[in-house]
From TrEMBL:
Cofactor binding, per record: Binds 2 iron ions per subunit.
Family assignment from sequence similarity: Belongs to the fatty acid desaturase type 2 family.
Assembly behavior: Homodimer.
Protein's name according to its UniProt entry: Acyl-[acyl-carrier-protein] desaturase
The organism's taxonomic lineage, starting at the top: Bacteria, Bacillati, Actinomycetota, Actinomycetes, Mycobacteriales
Species, as recorded: Nocardia pseudobrasiliensis
Alphabetized UniProt keyword annotations: Fatty acid biosynthesis, Fatty acid metabolism, Iron, Lipid biosynthesis, Lipid metabolism, Metal-binding, Oxidoreductase
Cofactor field: Fe(2+); Fe cation
GO terms, molecular function: metal ion binding; stearoyl-[ACP] desaturase activity
GO cellular component: cytosol
Amino acid sequence: MVRELTQREILTELESVAEDALNRHLSMARDWHPHDYVPWDRGRDFAMLGGVDFEPGQSSLSEVAKAALVTNLLTEDNLPSYHREIAENFSRDGAWGSWVGRWTAEEMRHSTVLRDYLVVTRGVDPVALERARMTHMTNGFAAPLDQLPGEEAGFLYSVAYVSFQELATRISHRNTARVCGDPVADRMLQRVALDENLHMIFYRSMCEAALELVPDQAMAAIDTIVENFRMPGAGMPDFRRNGVLMAKYGVYDLRQHCEEVLDPVLRQWNIFSRTDFGPRGDRARERLAAFLDRLRTVDIPRFEEQRDRSLARDRARGIDRTS
């Protein structure tokens, strides 16, 4: 029987890979500045400084665009919780610590630029936005495994989760740009999405290296994460309502999650063609295959049928949430 490696042993074995991945990231990343992406000339004072407070008619964003932008922003706001999770499950030393610091610094720009854009353009009610931020950050972020009795979080589960989550966030930002109808928002969100893609590449590379090092342990973690995946904003105020709007209008839905997030990452890792799994890894792969089959043949068709009926009802009532 092959001995399972501890988290510390895995981190030690993979540190040179992490250093190479960090150096590759630094060579590819390009500095950018949030203030360059905000249309400051649209700004004006609020009532406290003698101006006018927010009123709904001031926003040019559609209902769907507001839901997506607020969801994306509140997700980015919870960075302190994500930093804690990554720092606890990776390491603060060596290449690991350097990556955690760099990733956190890059991620911080996302909430900065999104909030500045929404406040300056009066896209949403800034008071409601701040109250939602306070609630969401006070509650913090609970990793998916925190909800599963008997499962312990750790490096393998964490790196598997962020491999999928960073790509999912990139797609959400990219599709939010499409529904905003504002070239300034489009440019801003495409810039944020580029960051998320580079972050995904780092984490995906580390998970791929873990599969080579401890295939059975990594496969078990991947299966658990995929079957219990939740977006990091799942606990925010109005997440269900906003998530339904985003799914209904193609910002992020179940088919996109399967075909644009799960499938390409699993394909990159060669999950269904690998020959190095033992009994534990084979069982996890079989569970994953069955889960994906249900997703494709039952869950996605059911969702799309319900979505199409709902859209038809909206059209019959003359409701347009995209303008």
